[in-house]
Model the fold of this input.
Amino acid sequence: METETKIRKLGFIGSFAIYIPAAILMFFLTKYLIPYLSNVTGQETILFWFIVGGLGIFLPLILTGLLILKTEGYRISKETWINRLRFRKITKNDIIWSFAGLILVGLFSGLIMVGLELIIGNFDHSPPFMSFEPLTDGRYWLLFVWFPYWVLNILGEEFLWRGVMLPRQEIAFGKYAWIIHGFGWGLFHIAFGWQLLVTLIPLIFIQSYIVQKTKNSWTGVIMHGGLNGPSFIAICFGLI
Done:
């Protein structure tokens, strides 16, 4: 039996039965737990976003993905990694799609931010729990906390959303799966606030389309990690 024949479709109800609890978890941890820990310890909220986000949000995404794979009858193996989760060898075409996608995301997100500033004036698009000043002496250690969080962030989302769920959604929704997928991924980020969520729309849908188009989950890792990581480093050193 071919590996692909084991994959069962994941329809609208099944998809949002995963997206909604994940969004609720994100909302309550960022709205209540992170501010509480910051107030009690006197540490800045970004530290607890790294800790709570990594261990309380993105690690559970990985565990959820593993549980789903187990219910499907899969075990973690090279075959599962390549054929079921679609973390396949990256081709030149994959790289072209990924970087073209990043360019489009940067262009459209930039236009959205400019448009929002024209409409509502200057605003801080980062939610309170993610806001921080560029790093200064005595705070560079935050980079060592950020890195494992970043790995869990990218691995958790790309493993569950693109590796586990998207192939099943494609069986249910065909060529329109990326649209349903994008809406669900956007719902997951609702705790970020509407300003940031609006600027994320290009990434949410363009990346979903490209991963479906290439049938390679590594394109999602390249786009998501390539945008998330360098932008954080740039903020850390006051470059943006």
